[in-house]
């Protein structure tokens, strides 16, 4: 009897107030809990009204909490009632919880959908978990304290950009991503579908775009890139996939804006249909080092082809906007092309850059013909084209560029690279780009799209909002890195876009994340980033959050879920081998060390190589042991090439790490090669292992070492290979 009672009471849980909403609604007013009874949600609550999809979505989620026996939602006195009230703004709603009724009012199905999202955040986090089989822990009921929420977003544009060219993401992954956006009331998905390293959208009239342009690897038209390896790598979305994805998004209040990046970033298009690029053999490289990736603006047939492509895509994407890129174009390519020069003369232009303006004007017209308004990166403004002020400008540089675009009269969305580039590192020790900034959660949260701007009242509505952007050059490892880079930073994007500025507070946001939202995301299946523990020089360790533990190892390996938890002082004679990581269930942070416990040695070394070095990155860098200096070759390496490090004195040490790829971007590593060692007491070289996925070989020499040799075994990725100084402990 007693046991039964205990079970029962533990199954009746109660939400804590305040609720940990993310993003925080504009207005939340709790009723006095001492006088008003809570609303009791159980399987007997009836749902009244509501748009069919929203009701089903709510029911599907509630079925993860309550036993869905029969059609029990149809009986009982308490209700969740949806009503349509015209006066609400487009995405706004109110949600009123009283003891007998949850009343949701909105003017649109999207407003209703967002009210449902807010309601889900009043429920336990397992509402986000697809309950699989008998392990589903069902509740008997859940008490929701009475509250009144009146809510609408601060900005109409709250977006996520995903580059699916550099890394490919399956249809299933995109659908999951859309779910995650919807849970955060993010309403735009900017789908960067094409770039130099892969064309990802089926175009019936030009089948080679995906037969050829969607694949890279050895022997493919597109070379291996970003550690995708020798094997064929890639993929694309069929038009049916796209229809399915677009409809799935629309149900969840998300508009998908396709991007075809033109006229630069077009290597994948150019390898599929080589006639689209200028005919010349000058070595004009794009910022990313691509050759021949710019469409010929003087070739009239290109516009007919782009018209065909846009026609097919315009039919797939109901969005009013269509993004045509226009950034980072190596316009010098047009300098060496007879057709482009002829066009320049005809138009009376004196600078190739003006041709970019001409191209954007042409694209605007083609898009208009297919019912679309042009969207482009900020470069559409600076290109000098005579453009409609309906065109939407996506600014990726800083606030001064946003101001310029606004002053020129364009509506704008910011993806400010200092705050909203989700491919940047969170902290210096983590993986990611650094060229724009290092962006931890607090920094992104601190951003206000209006900061630094001087706007007249008429200009203010031109700022449509913001989006976080994930470029995917660096996603190949570690596993789940895209999610790591996106979350929780996208939670901050959601709140910046939704919550009134005056109500935003980072400490409060961080508390909401750690108290509840991390658990929600875990149930959503997001492998989000966990911050590393703080470790000081004395070996004192602190977990970043009270509900996360720190695990450790003694042997220099990264801690795993089965490593011991730090509960008191960790005693060891070898502090240099200690590694710590924060764990939240099976999600873990990067591993960190006791600062300065490892000592690095810099023995005199002579370096010779068969490789020709780029003069800016000389081989001499390799004897200097400076972490930021490295050697880069002038040409791709060939089989048999080598780099030989010979120590002046036989070297006794614990460990040598041979690290290739550049230390800044981790590009251009040795992907096919191995390391050999010559011991001081031996004549020949002994073969060690091949380079791993991190383009690295580490070994612990048992005897004094005379020399270390890198040997290239086959073609490597990219146009060069980068080699760092040895790391010696
Ligand atoms: C710049 S921002 C790019 C992308 C890169 C990104 C890497 C922009 C419009 N172009 O092509 O992937 O930097 O951070």
Summarize the structure in words:
The structure is a single chain. By secondary structure, the chain is α/β, with parallel strands linked by helices. It folds into 4 domains: 3-8 and 530-588, no CATH class; 27-151, Chitobiase, domain 2, CATH 3.30.379.10; 157-503, TIM Barrel (Alpha-Beta Barrel); 605-728, Jelly Rolls. 23% of the residues lie in helices and 22% in strands. It has 16 helices and 36 strands. The strands form 10 sheets. An 8-stranded parallel β-barrel has the order 10-11-16-17-18-19-20-21, surrounded by 4 helices. A 6-stranded mixed sheet has the order 2-9-6-7-5-4, with helices on one face. β19, α12 and β20 (412-414) form a beta-alpha-beta unit. α8 (300-316) crosses α10 (353-369). The protein is globular, with a radius of gyration of 29 Å. Mean pLDDT is 94; it is low at 1-15. The structure holds ligand TNX.
